[in-house]
Amino acid sequence: MSCVEGSAITLICRVNKPVSRAWLADDTGNELDLSAIPSDTTDYRRTMTLNRTERYSVHLVDSEGRTNKLAPEITLTALPDRPPELVLKFPGRDVRASALEEVALEAQAWTTSESPRTVL
Fold this sequence. Notes:
Elements: E1 2-4, E2 7-14, E3 21-26, E4 31-33, E5 35-37, E6 40-50, E7 54-61, E8 73-79, E9 85-90, E10 106-110, E11 117-119
């Protein structure tokens, strides 16, 4: 998953049965607990602010102490917050307008992570 640095994100982990503990672990061993969602016994979540790219593995323990054999990995990519690129397409020249005149404009705007979009 990718989002802009500083974005608040919520991860939801849906499992096939209730577990006694669910958590994310990073490469250094730090653990972030996932909280059970009260309305659904098989959904667990964590809300956080993404300030840098992080990689986590998802760990589970059921009521009988069994753990997941293969911990799935999730990578959260933090993209720098950049201003959009903007190109004025129309009128394409200087226009003199009075304070009461309306001037029609057409522009194209995009960020480095998306394709150009025309804005009227």
